[in-house]
Amino acid sequence: MNQQESNVSPRECILQLIRTRMSSRHAMQRLLKRSGADITFEMLQIMSCLWSEQGISQQTLAERTAKDKACLTSLMGNLEKKGYVCRREDPKDRRNKLVYLTEAGEAFHQWIAPELAAYYERLEQILGKEKISQTEQLLKELQDAIENY
C-alpha cells in the first residue's frame, strides 16, 4: 500500500463510489443512445431484473432497483406504453400486481443483449477478472458496514 492509499478517508471512498455510480450510469445511457434503444437507464434496470425473473411484484422490483414507489410506477407506465412489460393481478393477493415481459420486451432483450455483453466484456478486459471480483467483494463489505451502522 502506498502513502496516498493509506490517507484515503471513508468519506472520500464513498464520494468515489458515488462518482463511479454516476459514470456507470452515463456510460450506459451513451450505450443506449448509440444503439437507438429509446429507453432510459432506469427503464433498463427494470427490464434487466425481468430478464432474470418474470412475474415479480412491483415491490420486489422497487427493492432490487433501489427505486421508490412513485418512481417505479412512472417507469412501469412508460415501459407499458412501449409494450415491453405488462402487469397482471397476483392470483394469491389481488392487491398486488405481478410484472412480466411481453413478446416485445423479450425481443428487445435479444436485440440489446449483445451490446450489453460487449460493454461488460470490455470492462473485464480493462480491469481483469480478479480486480472485478475484489471490487465486488469490497463493495459488498462496504454496503454491509453502512447498513449495519
Number of domains: 1
Number of helices: 7
Q: Which term fits the overall shape?
A: globular
Named at the architecture level, the CATH assignment is: Orthogonal Bundle
Largest sheet, order of strands side by side?
1-3-2
Largest sheet at a glance?
3 strands, antiparallel
What is the name of the CATH class? Mainly Alpha
**Proportion of residues in extended strands:** 5-15%
- At the fold tier of CATH, the topology name is Arc Repressor Mutant, subunit A
Termini separation comes to: 27 Å
Approximate helicity band: over 70%
Radius of gyration using CA atoms only: 18 Å
What report would you give on this structure?
This protein is mostly helical and 149 residues long. The protein has a single domain (3-147), classed as Winged helix-like DNA-binding domain superfamily/Winged helix DNA-binding domain (Arc Repressor Mutant, subunit A, Orthogonal Bundle), CATH 1.10.10. It has seven helices and three strands, in the order αααβααββαα. It is globular. The two termini are 27 Å apart.
Keywords:
mainly alpha; Arc Repressor Mutant, subunit A; 3 strands; 3-stranded antiparallel beta sheet
Layout of helices and strands:
Elements: H1 3-6, H2 10-35, H3 41-52, E1 56-57, H4 58-65, H5 69-81, E2 85-90, E3 93-101, H6 103-127, H7 129-147
Antiparallel strand pairs: 1-3, 2-3
